[in-house]
Amino acid sequence: PVDIFRTRVALGVGRRIERLGRYRIAAIYYGQALNTGLTKSAEVQFRYGFSLYKCKQYQAAMNELESAIARQPHRYGWIQTLALNMQRMKKYERSLELFAAACEGDPRKITWRIRWARCARLARKSDLASAILDGLVADFPSDPVASAAIAKFLLETGQRWRELDVRLQYESQHVDDANWMFLTGQAASFMSRFELAEEYFQKALDLDD
To answer: Can you give the pTM of this predicted structure?
Structure first.
């Protein structure tokens, strides 16, 4: 079909301009492609919104991105991108809604769920962040990225007793990580478990040699 061909051409040219870092030119190109009827593609509209965002035309960008997503609500990668942009603008409530939708749509994306938890922390909703990361570890118990994320969160929020439990439980996923062993020792020391702390500080030193 003609529209599919035109869309491919518009995206091909536009993305080349984006890769050169010429987002103002890309925004003009995408805008003209949409306004002249060259293409009505939601994907071109999304790239138009993204280019506007890179040009710091934030409100116009959000309008285009939201509209593109409304037309294709199953493009979860777009939703996650919009969530990040909303977070950067400190619109945390909307960002959290979008992260929730993206992660519900594609729960296999570990990185998205970690970003969702980070946004919850920025919004001062530590209980939500904790619940997100607890769910992540429950869904991916064998993935070291998941256990590292929950351990980091517990460290940063001062929950050293829970952090110690997590680091001991998932140690087998981080056997070559000197920093993991050091932080395990540090958490043990904080909990006055000094013999355990000494053991893990030694492990850290052995790995750091």
So the answer is: 0.86
